[in-house]
Amino acid sequence: SEEAYLEALAIRKKLAEKNPDAFEPVLADSYNNLGILYSDTQRLQDAEETYLNALEIRKRLAQKNPDAFEPDLAWSYNNLGTLYHKIKKFKESEEAYLEALAIRKKLAEKNPDAFEPVLADSYNNLGILYSDTQRLQDAEETYLNALEIRKRLAQKNPDIFEPDLADTYNVLGIIYKDTQRLQEAEEAFLKAVEINKRSAEKNPYAFKPALANTYNDLGLLYMDAQRYNEAEEAFLNTMEIRKDLTAKDPGAFPSLAMIYCNLGFLYRKMQKTDKARDFFTAALEIFMRINKNGNFDKDIKNIKNYISLLQ
Question: Whole-model pTM?
Fold first, then answer.
């Protein structure tokens, strides 16, 4: 709780004043933990202030002893980058992520086994930022750097690193689709499907959602390319997985409704009007059932319009 973190912080502040060498590292940890709490509870200004306090201390520590404290310094920059991304301070986010990346590159050169995973994470975070700000060429470049590392890691330890590898293939597929490189998009999505299928066989309810999402992305690609039979197969695979997931997780119902909508759009394009209407109606029934606080009013209105256009 915040109260416990603040008590620890107050004690460590006093200790660090008397003996900074011994207690500044844990004081920085206290600021960092409090920043995470504030970020998770949407107190973003408080989060920024506490992260900056942690950063200031860790910069000093890393100057004196880089080997011991540069990993924590990179985490502080990473946390700030994530926070700034969340509040749409994109320039500051990029600067913080690049600082984390530069440190992790140096660390990974000395000790790749320990630091290549977080280096890949840094590339991935930058890729997300660049994608969100429509810098697609920069996003592609950073995702490819993450991909190269994650391929190596997944060869050594597939159980741990294949899910991240699949995620990277999937986001690259989305970039290739958005830049009309449809063959490269298909190849990337199929790689992601292949890996996610393996992961889902070992741990179905951890990895079936990712598999369903990739099938859905593949279906959207095929629908845009007018490869309707392949789109139908991909969407039906998505639907079967999401139906299965709703049996154990009611929170999956919106995703199930969305794949019903995608099938409705597909069948409308294929001029299979009755099927399109059936799937739009199935989506409408779900959204009306789960629309407790008006969260799905817009979806309900849109689907009713889609159905009316099929009359």
Answer: 0.91
∠ CA 22-110-54 to the nearest 5 degrees?
A: 35
Do 285 and 261 touch, CB atoms closer than 8 A? no
Contact 30, 8 (CB under 8 A): yes
Q: Is the separation of the CB atoms in 207 and 163 below 8 Å? A: yes
Element housing 126 (H / E): helix 112-132
**Distance between CA atoms of residues 237 and 91, nearest Å:** 40
pLDDT in tens, 184-204: 999 999 999 999 999 999 999
Residue in the structure block whose two tokens are 């009013």: 297
The Cα 228–Cα 215 span in angstroms is 14
- Quote the CA–CA distance of 161 and 154 in Å, as a whole number: 5
**Do 38 and 47 form a contact (C-beta atoms < 8 A)?**
yes
